């Protein structure tokens, strides 16, 4: 899905740059936002929730057979959605409805594990479950929006999914795993992870999602709400940038795989700082000036994608019986992804730059993500190098 969605959007932008008219049944921006955020990330979550999740909850391993039907349904649903995006909004809505149904089933399966858990520490799992429920609701809302021709509803639900579902799950996992990985690899660091920071930052993610949705449905927002956003975002940005350093950003640079996780987390602080600047401009100009989509792409490419890249590289290596390390290929692809994030943020801040930076960003993205998919995807169908089952 990562490979397919990336090539699809690269093709769309190249055809647009060449002046070729493409048929669209829905708004291109809505299709892009939905597929590039929800088209492959929930599938990544499935692998995580039903491998690490049972360990966190003190539950037995989950059979992959229980996940097969909903996972295949998600893939089929997105393929129908992709066809419908260009052929008919109703077909796109039906595709997303299949995805919503399958994701609801997977969330229910994880909820059953959560309810039966004997573990005394289920805070992270509880917040992740809550975010997964928000994702299910958001996907149903997107499906209904396209089926009933309510484009604003689709855009609002997608924003809610990105912040309240995807970003919230990523942050909860970062809070639990990043200090642990760092302390395990670098003895001078500790696994300090205050629980107040977990709850408060997930609340910030939900606030961002709810206000972003409100901005779409009811615009412009009140001046008081806008300045409240600025205050929360500025404070949160400072805390996240400080936490990035506190958790070992500088020390991690000596270990490639760990550095990939830390650099991705650093982008979360950058995202909130850009959000604060953008909303300050909006408050001062009565919503006529902003940084555009720069904060959103700092979040999605900088934080979410870089973190996913690092985590999937680590997991793929471990489950493939290979060393837990980023070799030269993975390291090069990761920095190409960082280039994509920087160029895309720049192109959003400076719309006068034209189409060239946009094409550079998507080209770099495709090299990084399609290169990763091609290389590591081949590992998934081969026996483990260490001879163990799998």
List the helices and strands and how they pair.
Blueprint: H1 2-17, H2 28-38, H3 41-49, H4 52-57, H5 65-87, H6 89-116, H7 123-147, H8 151-185, H9 195-217, H10 223-246, H11 249-252, H12 256-284, H13 294-319, H14 328-349, H15 355-379
Helix pairs in contact: 1-15, 2-8, 5-6, 6-7, 7-8, 8-9, 8-12, 8-13, 9-10, 10-12, 12-13, 13-14, 14-15
* SSE string: HHHHHHHHHHHHHHH
Biggest sheet details: none
The helix tally amounts to 15
What's the pLDDT, averaged over the residues?
94
Terminal-residue CA separation: 22 Å
Number of strands: 0
Structural class: mainly alpha
Shape: globular
- Percent of sequence in beta strands: under 5%
Gyration radius from CA atoms, angstroms: 20 Å
Unreliable residue stretches = none
Please estimate the helix content.
over 70%
What can you see in these coordinates?
This protein is mainly α and 390 residues long. The chain has two domains: 1-169, no CATH class; 220-377, no CATH class. The protein is 78% helix and 0% strand. The protein has helices at residues 2-17, 28-38, 41-49, 52-57, 65-87, 89-116, 123-147, 151-185, 195-217, 223-246, 249-252, 256-284, 294-319, 328-349, 355-379. Helix 8 packs antiparallel against helix 12. The radius of gyration is 20 Å and the shape is globular. The two termini are 22 Å apart.
């Amino acid at each position: 899905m990562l490979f397919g969605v990336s090539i699809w959007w690269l093709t769309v932008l190249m055809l647009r740059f060449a002046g070729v008219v493409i048929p669209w049944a829905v708004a291109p921006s809505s299709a892009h936002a939905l597929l590039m955020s929800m088209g492959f990330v929930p599938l990544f979550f499935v692998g995580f929730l039903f491998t690490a999740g049972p360990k966190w909850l003190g539950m037995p391993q989950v059979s992959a057979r229980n996940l097969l039907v909903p996972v295949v349904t998600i893939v089929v649903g997105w393929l129908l959605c992709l066809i419908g995006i260009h052929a008919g909004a109703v077909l796109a809505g039906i595709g997303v409805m299949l995805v919503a149904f399958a994701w609801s089933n997977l969330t229910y399966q994880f909820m059953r594990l959560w309810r039966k858990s004997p573990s005394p520490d289920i805070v992270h799992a509880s917040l992740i479950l809550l975010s997964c429920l928000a994702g299910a609701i958001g996907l149903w809302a997107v499906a209904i929006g396209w089926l009933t021709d309510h484009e604003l509803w689709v855009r609002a639900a997608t924003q809610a999914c990105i912040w309240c579902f995807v970003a919230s799950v990523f942050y909860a996992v970062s809070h639990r795993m990043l200090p642990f990985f760092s302390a395990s690899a670098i003895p001078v660091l500790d696994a300090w992870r205050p629980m107040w920071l977990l709850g408060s930052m997930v609340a910030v993610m939900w606030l961002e999602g709810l206000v972003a949705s409100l901005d779409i449905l009811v615009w412009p927002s009140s001046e008081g709400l806008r300045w409240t956003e600025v205050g929360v975002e500025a404070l949160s940005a400072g805390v996240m940038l400080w936490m990035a350093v506190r958790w070992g950003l500088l020390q991690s640079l000596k270990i490639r795989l760990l550095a990939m996780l830390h650099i991705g987390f650093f982008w979360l602080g950058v995202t909130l700082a850009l959000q604060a600047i953008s909303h300050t401009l909006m408050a001062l100009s009565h919503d006529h000036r902003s940084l555009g989509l720069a904060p959103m792409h700092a979040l999605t490419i900088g934080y979410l994608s870089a973190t996913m890249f690092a985590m999937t590289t680590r997991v793929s290596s471990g489950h493939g019986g290979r060393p837990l390390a980023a070799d030269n290929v993975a390291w090069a692809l990761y920095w190409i992804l960082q280039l994509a994030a920087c160029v895309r943020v720049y192109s959003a801040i400076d719309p006068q730059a034209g189409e060239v930076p946009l094409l550079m960003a998507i080209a770099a993205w495709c090299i990084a993500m399609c290169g990763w998919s091609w290389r590591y995807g081949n590992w998934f169908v081969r026996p483990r190098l260490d001879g163990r089952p799998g």
